[in-house]
C-alpha cells in the first residue's frame, strides 16, 4: 500500500448555513421537529428565511465541518462536495480552501442553486435544521476521482448523503476504491431521522464491511437498533462494525472496538450556546487522533475538546486553533 497524500478525505453535502436564534414557538409555528434535520424545497426555504430574524451566515455541511476541523488540527485534508458556480458557491469554495482543505470538485454550471441549511437555535442551545439540498443533490459518481480517493488514508462519509440517489452511488464508489487501495472508510449516521429513513441500508453497510468505522450519538444508536436500552444497542454495534464511536453529550463517549469498550469523559465547558456542529467536530478530533495513532482514549479526548470548543459559540466551525487548544490540554498533536 502506498503512503497516503491525505490523512482524511470527506465527502458530503456542501451547504451554506443560515443560523438564527429563535424561540420554541417559531418551531411550532413552522411545524419543525426540534433537534432534527428536515429536507425542504425552495419554496419552503424562502418562507422560513422570510420569517427568520437577523441571521449569521457561513459555510457549513456536516462532513465539510469535520474536514475543516481536521485541517485546523493540522491534518492533511481534502473534501468532495457539489456547489453551483453562483455567488454562494464561490464563497463556499473560497472558505473551505482558505481553511487549508483541498477542494477540487467541479461546480455545477446549471441546475439548482448552492444548497442552504436554515438552522434555528433555541434558548437551550439545541439546533433544528431545515435543509434545501440544491446543487448538493447533484453530486454523483463522476465527481469521485479514483486517484484522490486512493490517496487518502481514511474516507469520511456523512449519512445525509443517503438522501440524494446520485450521492449514494458516489458514496459506494468511493468506498470500493478506498478498500481496493487498502484504506479505511468511516460513516457518521448524521441524524436519528436519517437513521429512521435508511436503517436497513446503514446496517447492511456495516455488516457487509462497506464501512469500517461508525460515528453515532445516543439517539442515532437507539434509532439504529430500535431499542431504548443503551447497553443492548452497544453490544449490537460491537458485533456489526470494526469500530464504533458513540457520543453521549455531557456523559462523554464510548469507543466500541471488537475486544473492548473505552469510556472517555466530556470536556468541560463554560456555557452551552449552540450545538450545531458538535458531532462534526467530535469526529474531527477523533479522526485526527486515529491519524496520529494516539490511541482510542486520546482520540476520544481530542474529539471531546473540539466539540466543546464549537458548542460555546454560534456556528459549526472552530473559532480558535484546535491544535493550540489540544497542546494546552496535553493532548498529542
Automatic annotation (TrEMBL):
Entry GO MF terms: kinase activity
Superkingdom of the organism of origin: Bacteria
Keywords: Kinase, Transferase
Carbohydrate kinase PfkB domain location: 54-318
Keyword flag Kinase: yes
SUPFAM superfamilies in the record: Ribokinase-like
Listed Pfam families: PfkB
Keyword Kinase listed: yes
Recorded family membership: Belongs to the carbohydrate kinase PfkB family.
PANTHER family listed in its UniProt record: CARBOHYDRATE KINASE PFKB DOMAIN-CONTAINING PROTEIN, SUGAR KINASE
This protein's name: Sugar/nucleoside kinase (Ribokinase family)
Species for this entry: Rhodopseudomonas faecalis
Amino acid at each position: 500500500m502506498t503512503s497516503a497524500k491525505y490523512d482524511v478525505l470527506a465527502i458530503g453535502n456542501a451547504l451554506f448555513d443560515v443560523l438564527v436564534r429563535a424561540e420554541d414557538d417559531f418551531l411550532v409555528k413552522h411545524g419543525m421537529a426540534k433537534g432534527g434535520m428536515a429536507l425542504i424545497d425552495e419554496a419552503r426555504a424562502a418562507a422560513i428565511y422570510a420569517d427568520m430574524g437577523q441571521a449569521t451566515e457561513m459555510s457549513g455541511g456536516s462532513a465539510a465541518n469535520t474536514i475543516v476541523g481536521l485541517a485546523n488540527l493540522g491534518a492533511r485534508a481534502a473534501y468532495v462536495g457539489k456547489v453551483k458556480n453562483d455567488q454562494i458557491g464561490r464563497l463556499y469554495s473560497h472558505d473551505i480552501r482558505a481553511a487549508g482543505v483541498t477542494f477540487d470538485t467541479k461546480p455545477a454550471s446549471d441546475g439548482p442553486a448552492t444548497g442552504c441549511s436554515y438552522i434555528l437555535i433555541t434558548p437551550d442551545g439545541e439546533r433544528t435544521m431545515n435543509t434545501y439540498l440544491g446543487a448538493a443533490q447533484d453530486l454523483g459518481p463522476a465527481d469521485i476521482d479514483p486517484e484522490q480517493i486512493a490517496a487518502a488514508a481514511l474516507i469520511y462519509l456523512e449519512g445525509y448523503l443517503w438522501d440524494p440517489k446520485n450521492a449514494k452511488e458516489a458514496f459506494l464508489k468511493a468506498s470500493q476504491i478506498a478498500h481496493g487501495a487498502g484504506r479505511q472508510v468511516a460513516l457518521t449516521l448524521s441524524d436519528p431521522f436519517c437513521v429512521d429513513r435508511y436503517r436497513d441500508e446503514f446496517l447492511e453497510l456495516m455488516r457487509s464491511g462497506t464501512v469500517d468505522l461508525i460515528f453515532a450519538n445516543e439517539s442515532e444508536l437507539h434509532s439504529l437498533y430500535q431499542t431504548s436500552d443503551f447497553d443492548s444497542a452497544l453490544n449490537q454495534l460491537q458485533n456489526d462494525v470494526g469500530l464504533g464511536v458513540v457520543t453521549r453529550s455531557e456523559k462523554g463517549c464510548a469507543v466500541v472496538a471488537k475486544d473492548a469498550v473505552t469510556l472517555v469523559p466530556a470536556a468541560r465547558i463554560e456555557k452551552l450556546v449552540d450545538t450545531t456542529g458538535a458531532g462534526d467536530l467530535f469526529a474531527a478530533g477523533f479522526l485526527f487522533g486515529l491519524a496520529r495513532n494516539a490511541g482510542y482514549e486520546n482520540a476520544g479526548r481530542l474529539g471531546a475538546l473540539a466539540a466543546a470548543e464549537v458548542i460555546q459559540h454560534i456556528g459549526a466551525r472552530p473559532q480558535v486553533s484546535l491544535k493550540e487548544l489540544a497542546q494546552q490540554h496535553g493532548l498529542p498533536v
